[in-house]
């Protein structure tokens, strides 16, 4: 039976899954992402998928429990990715996407959910899926039918007619239109309500053009301030956070003015945009790993020539903007936009974040405590303190000394269940 908390969608209360277990973990070094220090030789007592207690191994509870030996490992909280598309496929871009039905995409999602979990990502925000396939995937995972991360699901992304979140690949007579397309404040409020009705936990909208859509300008704002405000107001009334896809400076500034909770991509963010984000407490989620995959593999995967041209303008500037935002002390999320690149390589982004200005600890904070805050789940995930889900990963080396080790996660537990060892 799925717990009632999993059924209350939009409340950010995800269940500890149907498979929740009891166990005792013997952990060599446990990272506190807040301070960047390790507690040595720890026990982690897990009851019903939740951390009941933690302390020195020598004062472990005397109980008859399954013991998991991670005594020579570096143990971190399960990782969080603020921007994935589990039902998307990195080999299927451009016109190839028209061959994929919604049920086919859902099955792709099952494969990618496992790859994502195996990479150490135990909670993700799925920022956009056709036909509510991400909601079905989330529920199947929570029911224990298939393995995968906890999913905060957006359902269809909202967008203007002909914008980045529409389907612009076919002439008018085909009537192709993405699920989340609407124009005007009231039509958008209705879309938010519809997404909520069918199970969304978060709202995603497109505030500028994008790289991988046909005929959109990455620099150009999409939606008026009035429309963005309507989306944000309606979503917040329903207890849902709002993520805005935005590359161009004006679209970023307008989305922040409208009250969004995170800016996705943030490529051409102005100094004003960074200042606004800091003042309003808006997270910047920047997919700085993506560019290499797009430029190296994109053509084979079917990406349009115009997309490759746009990427050549966006990639480098986005990384420089990332460096500026980190220097300025903006709140940084970890969002990778998996599906553009292959799911399961999420951990590769850590090294890029360090190359472009973060310390290893800052990059890990982005994927743990910062994302937990952005998801509204700081009481459930992001650290290994009592009361939180027993979501953890173990590494062979100290990632604070070698951030590349985040690409190789040999052990993954979610809700007290070991999924990879
Ligand atoms: N989904 C995004 C878009 O199409 C991907 C952008 C990837 N490029 C980058 N440099 N991060 O706009």
Key features?
single chain; 421 residues; alpha/beta; Urease, subunit C, domain 1; TIM Barrel; seven-stranded mixed sheet; five-stranded parallel sheet; disordered N terminus; binds arginine
* Structure ligands: arginine
Total number of distinct structural domains: 2
Main sheet properties: 7 strands, mixed
SS field, number of helical segments? 11
Shape verdict? globular
Strand order of the largest sheet: 3-2-1-4-13-14-15
As a whole number of angstroms, the C-alpha radius of gyration is 21 Å
Multimer state = single chain
Which stretches are poorly predicted, pLDDT < 50 over at least 5 residues? 1-18
Q: Give the end-to-end Cα distance, rounded to a whole number of Å.
A: 27 Å
CATH hierarchy class name of the largest domain? Alpha Beta
What does this structure look like?
The protein is α/β, with parallel strands linked by helices and 421 residues long. The protein is built from eleven helices and 15 strands. Strands 3-2-1-4-13-14-15 form a seven-stranded mixed sheet, with no helix packed on it. Strands 8-9-10-11-12 form a five-stranded parallel sheet. Helix 2 crosses helix 3, helix 6 runs parallel beside helix 7 and helix 8 packs antiparallel against helix 9. It is globular, with a radius of gyration of 21 Å. The N terminus is likely disordered. Bound molecules: arginine. The site of arginine (ARG) has 14 residues, from helix 8 and helix 9. Arginine (ARG) binds next to helix 8 and helix 9.
């Amino acid at each position: 039976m799925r717990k009632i908390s999993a059924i209350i969608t939009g409340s950010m209360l995800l269940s500890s899954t149907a498979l929740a277990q009891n166990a005792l973990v013997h952990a060599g070094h446990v990272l506190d992402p807040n301070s960047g220090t390790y507690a040595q030789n720890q026990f982690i007592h897990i009851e019903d998928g939740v951390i009941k207690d933690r302390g020195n191994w020598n004062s472990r509870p005397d109980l008859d429990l399954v013991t998991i030996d991670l005594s020579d490992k570096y143990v971190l909280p399960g990782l969080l990715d603020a921007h994935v598309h589990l039902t998307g496929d990195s080999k299927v871009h451009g016109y190839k996407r028209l061959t994929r039905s919604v049920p086919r995409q859902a099955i792709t999602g099952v494969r990618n959910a496992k790859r994502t979990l195996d990479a150490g990502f135990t909670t993700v925000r799925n920022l956009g899926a056709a036909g509510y396939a991400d909601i079905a995937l989330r529920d199947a995972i929570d029911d224990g039918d298939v393995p995968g991360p906890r999913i905060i699901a957006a359902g269809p992304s909202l967008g203007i007619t002909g914008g980045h979140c529409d389907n612009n690949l076919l002439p008018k007579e085909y009537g192709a239109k993405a699920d989340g397309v609407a124009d005007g404040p009231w039509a958008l409020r209705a879309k938010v309500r519809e997404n909520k009705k069918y199970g969304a936990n978060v709202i995603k909208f497109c505030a500028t053009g994008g790289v991988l859509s046909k005929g959109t300008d990455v620099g150009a704002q999409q939606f008026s301030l009035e429309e963005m405000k309507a989306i944000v107001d309606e979503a917040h009334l329903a207890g849902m956070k709002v993520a805005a896809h935005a590359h161009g400076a004006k679209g970023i500034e307008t989305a922040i003015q409208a009250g969004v909770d995170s800016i996705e991509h943030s490529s051409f963010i102005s100094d004003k945009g960074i200042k606004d984000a800091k003042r309003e407490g808006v997270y910047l989620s920047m997919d700085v790993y993506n560019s290499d995959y797009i430029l190296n593999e994109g053509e084979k995967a079917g990406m349009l020539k115009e997309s490759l041209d746009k990427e050549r303008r966006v990639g480098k500037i986005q990384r420089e903007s990332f460096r500026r935002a980190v220097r300025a002390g903006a709140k940084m999320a970890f969002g990778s936009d998996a599906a553009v690149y292959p799911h399961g390589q999420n951990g590769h982004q850590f090294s890029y974040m360090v190359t472009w200005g973060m310390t290893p600890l800052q990059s890990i904070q982005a994927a743990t405590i910062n994302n937990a805050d952005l998801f509204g789940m700081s009481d459930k995930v992001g650290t290994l303190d009592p009361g939180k889900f027993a979501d953890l990963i173990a590494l062979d080396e100290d990632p604070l000394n070698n951030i590349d080790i985040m690409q190789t996660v040999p052990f993954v537990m979610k809700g007290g269940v070991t999924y990879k060892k």
